Amino acid sequence: MIKRKMSFLLLVALSLTVLSCKGQESEKVRVGLDYHFNNEYKKEKNGKPYRFHYTWEDKKDSGFSMWDSAFTSLGAETLSLASAPRKQKLSNIDIYIIVDPDTEKETEKPNFVGQKDIQVITDWVKAGGILVLMANDSSNAEFENFNKLAAQFGIKFNRDKKNPVIGKQFEMGKIMIPADHLIFKEVNKIYIKEFSSLELTSPAKAVLSNKDNDVAMAYAEVGKGLVFAVGDPWLYNEYSNQSRLSADYENYKAGKALAEWLINKAKSK
């Protein structure tokens, strides 16, 4: 009888452990990175094409593998969305990141942001989704269609190049972080070169500007959701791994702070 009782108690304990683990898994924030509007390829020496440029898997300077590690170190799950955003796909993620949409110069048949994409994404944000829009400078991103999406949230990318950097004069690309910043609370200085400045209308609000008061980052609360916008894919490995910048630049630290802020926003929805 005692053995049976112990076995029963052990079974109950194991069941509770499994249920607890499943609960923790379901609470994990899911971060989806767009591979549809940003869909660039290079060829290996054998001629085989491979995807690159602002992807989780790309460990070279052009990739987001370090930002991926920032998200996963905070307990989030990262995944990629290789097809157009649709209601069912977006319903399975909490944070959706669109980076550097392709031009015809970069991709033979670019996937431009269309009206259906805009409607689906806007509805998803209003229902509680967290959207991240990362543009680029005037010659390295598609703006006409991307701005139609951004306009839904009071944001416009100005198609210019702020913080131009000559050679290795990295100080030209610095932005100092004000004390008690909304997002980058323990960050002092970051590097963002040649970003597209932002023009804002309600409900968008500036969250970071350079010394010339050019808005580099903004956010907008829309319905139950939130949109964060920045004029450059500034968290790619080249300037997050400290191989080029001096130690007083804190791009990786800032990337992790942004990831934490986005995750907390997603959890609060």
Task: Describe, in plain words, how this protein is organized in 3D.
This protein is an alpha/beta fold. It has a single domain, classed as Class I glutamine amidotransferase (GATase) domain (Rossmann fold), CATH 3.40.50. It has helices at residues 2-26, 65-73, 87-90, 115-126, 144-150, 251-268, and strands at 30-34, 40-43, 49-52, 77-81, 95-99, 130-134, 155-157, 174-176, 189-191, 198-200, 204-209, 215-222, 225-230. Strands 4-1-5-6-13-12-11 form a 7-stranded mixed β-sheet, with helices on both faces. A two-stranded antiparallel ribbon has the order 2-3. A two-stranded antiparallel sheet has the order 7-10. The longest helix has 25 residues, at 2-26. 40% of the residues are buried.
Summarize, please.
The chain has 269 residues and is an alpha/beta fold. Helices cover 28% and strands 22% of the residues.
Number of domains: 1
Question: Main sheet: which strands, in order across?
Answer: 4-1-5-6-13-12-11
SS strand fraction: 15-25%
Helix content: 25-40%
Distance between the termini: 49 Å
Unreliable sequence segments: 5-25
- How does CATH name the architecture? 3-Layer(aba) Sandwich
Give the C-level CATH assignment: Alpha Beta
DSSP strand count: 13
What is the CA-atom radius of gyration, in angstroms? Answer: 21 Å
Descriptive terms for the model:
single chain, Rossmann fold, alpha/beta, 269 residues, globular, 7-stranded mixed beta sheet
